[in-house]
Design brief:
The chain has 264 residues and is of the alpha/beta class. 31% of the residues lie in helices and 20% in strands. It has one domain (13-245): Vaccinia Virus protein VP39 (Rossmann fold), CATH 3.40.50.150. It has nine helices and seven strands. Helix 6 (152-162) links the parallel strand 4 and strand 5 (163-174).
Length: 264
């Protein structure tokens, strides 16, 4: 984040200071994707989950709505510290496998520590668009990860590729609307579209209205929930986010919105 109001002095401000400092500095511009992520997240990894618990809203709801039933195979693309695996609660032991995929070593170190307590959870270091599974999976989800992907179309295409026919894709993330969204969608005013896109871009988070357009083109019957959530240290300010859950068509080929990035 580019600017924060420090008039408040909560007890955890000192603990949050390392995270806030990295956000103020922004995502490094040099190096490859893995190197930039490592440089950005490594200094804040120990406070990563506590800070983002107050920023990344809707994760509990997304995972609660996913059809993660007994024996299913689930993949999280862009897993970060693996905190989301705990949100499956009593359903987690019943899964056949939960695979957590990310590219940042500092965050994956924490994910592996969490996964070590669960025999059916594995952690894979890989670029999200390049990860492959030995078999089609039942559910793939992104939790505040899609906006971090430089090639988000390739990431979405790979998620669809991984799914079995009829499998479920879930996404929760920040967003802004286009200037002329579909009638059933929220339309954010021009100032807000300008503000949030530039605010988040400082930390390598891209709020592209094309994300929702591509999701709905691929899964027209998907569930879309448009929400707002509070931002730490900015009292009264809320940022827009969405939850999307759709199913891969059972008998059709890849939709046109995905096709250009689906080549193996």
């Amino acid at each position: 984040m580019r600017a924060f109001t420090f008039a408040m002095s909560p007890p955890d401000l000192l603990a949050d200071s390392r995270v806030l400092w990295r956000m103020l500095r922004g995502l490094p511009r040099s190096g490859n994707a893995r190197e930039r992520l490592q440089a950005f997240y490594a200094p804040q990894a120990t406070r990563y989950d506590a800070f983002r618990a107050r920023l990344l809203h809707g994760r509990e709801e997304l995972i609660g709505r996913l059809p993660a039933y007994s024996g299913s195979v689930v993949v999280e693309l862009g897993c970060g510290t693996g905190e989301n695996l705990e949100r499956f609660g009593e359903r987690l032991p019943a899964l056949s496998r939960l695979t957590l995929v990310d590219l940042c070593p500092a965050l994956l170190e924490r994910a592996r520590a969490r996964a070590a307590r669960h025999a059916n959870v594995e952690v894979v270091e890989a670029e999200v668009g390049a990860y492959r599974s030995a078999q089609p999976v039942d559910c793939v989800y992104f939790s505040y990860a899609l906006t971090m992907m430089e090639d988000w179309r390739a990431a979405l295409a790979n998620a669809l590729r991984l799914l079995r026919p009829g499998g479920t894709l879930g996404v929760v993330d920040f967003y802004v609307s286009s200037a002329t969204p579909p009638a059933r969608h929220v339309r954010h005013p021009a100032w807000e579209r300008w503000l949030w896109r530039r605010w988040f871009a400082h930390d390598g988070v891209s709020l592209d209205p094309g994300h929702l357009e591509a999701l709905e083109a691929a899964m027209p019957q998907g569930l879309l929930l448009e929400r707002r959530g509070s931002v730490p240290y900015l009292p009264g300010v809320t940022a827009p986010y969405y939850i999307f859950i759709g199913r891969k068509p059972a008998t059709s080929t890849t939709p046109p919105a995905w096709r250009s990035d689906c080549a193996s």
